[in-house]
Amino acid sequence: MDANAYYLELRAKIFKALGHPSRLKMVEGLFEGERCVCELQAMVGSDISTVSKHLNILKEAGILQDERRGTNIYYSLRMKCVANFLSCVEDFVGQRLEEQIKMLSQSKLSSR
Amino acid sequence: MDANAYYLELRAKIFKALGHPSRLKMVEGLFEGERCVCELQAMVGSDISTVSKHLNILKEAGILQDERRGTNIYYSLRMKCVANFLSCVEDFVGQRLEEQIKMLSQSKLSSR
DNA sequence: ATCAAATTTGGTTATTCTGCCAAAAAGGAA
DNA sequence: TTCCTTTTTGGCAGAATAACCAAATTTGAT
Fold first, then answer.
1. pLDDT in tens, chain B (112 residues)
2. Which class for A106: exposed (0-12), middle (13-18), buried (19 or more C-beta within 10 A)?
3. Measured distance CA(B36)–CA(B71) in Å, rounded
């Protein structure tokens, strides 16, 4: 694999890591500051081993970093700029939802 | 599924769509303007049916839109703000690569 | 050294994703 | 209509993901 393909792969890996509801939710939760694994588990509700694996994927992608303090491991945001593009995605999704709602209400009206 | 979970899912879907090398490459290629499927195929090199499916994933996520003109179908960027966050990701990945290179050269020095 | 708490790792199963091929659709031109 | 080009769809095999459970690891406390 040449350097360009590797570079492309690294970028895609970041998006892939964010492309799962639980992982995205945890990343959003970390905007406010670091959290231990058990706190993050409470956020998403799945088995703690599942959460641990998700966190590792985010760490491997470079989005999060971790630090052990005592028996806990705290994860925090390493790639700060995700916050920017998450807000842009939220706006976009919000717009799409509004459009869908508008279309739905119109089809209701026309079917009366 | 409640509204929040659905909303989360929609956002994750966008990242998931961008989380594949071929799809990311095509999206980047579309920054400059619309392209037909055959042009996009040339960019990534896989079978045209594979490319078509990738494009559909990006369209379903809301990132791209398509328009038929004659026998060609032209895809273009619908979610303009991806450009912003892609540049942030590029910077980030570039930094990480530099760090890795630095670490590699240091370990070479120390092993002499 | 032993025990308990937090986290990761290994293993299994079910699901989803990818990529290719062949076949179908849709349009334009003769 | 028939043929040709472009694109999508259907189907299949192999690869990758995700979730859970159980077992291992790490650290702190007794």
1. 688 899 999 999 999 999 999 999 999 999 999 999 999 999 999 999 999 999 999 999 999 999 999 999 999 999 998 988 888 888 888 888 888 888 888 877 766 5
2. exposed
3. 10
Which of A9, A11, A16 shows the shortest C-beta gap to B90? A11
For the entire predicted model, the pTM comes to 0.91
Residues with CB under 7 A from strand C: A 36-38, 41, 48-49, 51-53, 55-56, 66, 71-74; B 16, 19-20, 22, 46-47, 49-50, 53-54, 57, 68, 70-71
Could you tell me the CA-to-CA distances from B97 to A6, A59, A95, B92 in Å, in that order?
Answer: 10, 15, 36, 9
Do the chains contact at B92 and A86, CB–CB below 8 Å? no
To probe the interface with A, which of B82, B86, B89 has the most A CB atoms within 10 Å? Answer: B89
